[in-house]
Amino acid sequence: MAQPSATPVLELVDLVAGYRTRQGLFGRRREVRAVAGVNLAVHEGQTVCLVGESGCGKSTVARTVVGLLRPIAGEVRLDGRDVTGLARRDLKAVRRQVQLVFQDPYASLNPHMTVRELITEAWRIHPGLVPQDRWDAELADLLERVGLNAGHAARYPHQFSGGQRQRISIARALAVRPRVIVCDEAVSALDVSIQAQVLTLLRQLQDELGVAYLFITHDLGVVRHFADRVAVMHLGGIVESGDTEQVFLHAAHPYTQALLSAAPSVDDWRDDAPGGEIVLTGDVPSPLDPPAGCRFHTRCWKAQQRCRADEPALEIRDTAHPVACHFPAPLPLVEPPVR
Amino acid sequence: MSALLEVSGLVVAFGDVRAVRGVSFTVGEGETLAIVGESGSGKSLSSLAVLGLLPAQARVEAGEIRWDGTDLRAADADRVRRLRGEELAMIFQDPLSALNPSLTVGYQVAEMFRRRRGLGRADAGRRAVEAMTEVGIPDAARRAGAYPHEFSGGMRQRVMIAMALALEPRLLVADEPTTALDVTVQAQILRLLRQRQRAGLAMVIISHDLGVVARAARSVVVMYAGQAVEAGAVADVYPAPAHPYTLGLLAASPSARDGDRRVRPIEGYPPDIAALPGGCAFHPRCPFARQRCRTEEPPLREVAPGRSSACHYAEEVVSRGATVGHAGA
């Protein structure tokens, strides 16, 4: 991993994004702020995991970062430059820098295109990147890098397994030499043996090419294994972030503690009766109608009057471990909250 | 402990293709067994065969399925249908597709009591609310009047569990019961299942997630390419697997508990069940494979009391896994 430089390659500043929706057929149009003020920095060659449950807004962050969705407010900065207000023409060059790999490699690859067409399409769209007489050599090199070979170039997506298709998606993302790849649940649909292959490949590509990952997932095992830094997202906001080990060992936000406690692990056979398990009651509130005050207070066992009224800000406590809670676990924790 | 469910030599085929190739397992009264494997391993088909719920194109080609001493394959369809629901119940990954969207949840739960217990409308409704309360649905009397789409995924799975448990079955088959749920909701459902286990309900849990299995089951059968490759108590298998595939699966599973462990993938891809490799089906991906594995199919054999493995070199795998840890396999 490269040393983090001063300016992050990707930075989100007070990002607000969401959708317009209608409740019922004749209901009034409403704005859903799926992302309600997110700050996040990804440095060159670094992996930042954004972890959270369904509806927390993590995929909306992904869509906004790659320009599929215009933010309502805030900035998306690439190398320190805000790209949200750019004209279409300028956006193209910027978008090349940030690529997206989706969860479902069945849906995200055009079934009528060969692997060669899928990958060279990017070079057609960004002329000057790879001269046409170099396409075949470059294609062979890319396929080799992701664990396929030049012989696969003439095949169609349906001729590949799920894991191989995800390798094709990764090759296609790499084709335009991006600085950042946003992976939206990119390994979630894969069987565990294949998931480990793809994670290992992504790490190896990072070592070779220095690409940064914004890795969006719900799987805490993957986070701990793969991330340099982690940001825990809950109902549109980041509630805690920091170095991965720091957050896993000294989780300070009750939601992070509950998530860690709830995540099943292959090491759980040791716990015959998990005594300290935190099981939240109730469901995740709807992002259409988030609770007032702290958005976690309806499920939080520590919640007090203040939590129902004031929304806690994300406050940096020690060097780089911000927590948005009025009553965070004290630092340093003697024991991790898991087990 | 007496065997409640005894499956032996089960073969399930689609036409000429055998998707389950001779699987055997036993569930005792009050025991929980997990069947773990990746997509296409045959884990779901095995359990569907037990309940007589195989898809139309599939059929049980060989083997025995004994329920409390009775051979279910020989029993007539009516008797099997009665057993299903009364004694054996099942829940699925996706509760939304298992519920009728146009009937209220309360009506669907009450239907169990009306059809199977002959209760009248009012009594059945009361029992339905009780059953829903029992599985932790808050305000069940009011929620009974709501439709499935008005329930969250976790609450829908609770409804399925309420329906499955309504007639007090002796065995619950749960096929990926928490796969579609968020992790905090998954923890709630697993806790609910654990409470039922403690109350004496036997379970078969089908899962791809070794973490869920570790939390929910006492014994485990690992399936690969239609066969059971390893079986034993979770507390024996996990620390020292006796089959290279189990070892590989554990090494490939990232753990949220352990910051030092690096996942290690299993090389290659699962085989096409219509064109299996000769010898051991796992040999092309196996780091332990030798000449013998290419030609001779290893039978599932007992390698220690209560533990079995379908590997020619099981003893070597156990000692290797135990000395270097999963990550070094």
TrEMBL record, chain A:
Gene Ontology BP annotations: peptide transport; transmembrane transport
SUPFAM superfamilies documented for this protein: P-loop containing nucleoside triphosphate hydrolases (SSF52540)
Any Pfam family hit: oligo_HPY
GO molecular function, one term: ATP hydrolysis activity
Key words, A-Z: ATP-binding, Nucleotide-binding, Transport
Cross-referenced SMART domains: AAA
CDD domains xref list: ABC_NikE_OppD_transporters
Family: Belongs to the ABC transporter superfamily.
Database matches in NCBIfam families: oligo_HPY
Name of protein: Dipeptide/oligopeptide/nickel ABC transporter ATP-binding protein
Organism (species): Prauserella muralis
From TrEMBL, chain B:
Record's keyword annotation contains DNA damage: no
Topology within the bilayer: Peripheral membrane protein
SUPFAM superfamilies (UniProt xref): P-loop containing nucleoside triphosphate hydrolases
Keywords, alphabetical: ATP-binding, Cell membrane, Membrane, Nucleotide-binding, Transport
Keyword field contains Transport: yes
Cellular compartments per GO CC: plasma membrane
Record-linked NCBIfam families: oligo_HPY (TIGR01727)
Family of the protein in this entry: Belongs to the ABC transporter superfamily.
Protein name: Methionine ABC transporter ATP-binding protein
Gene source species: Prauserella muralis
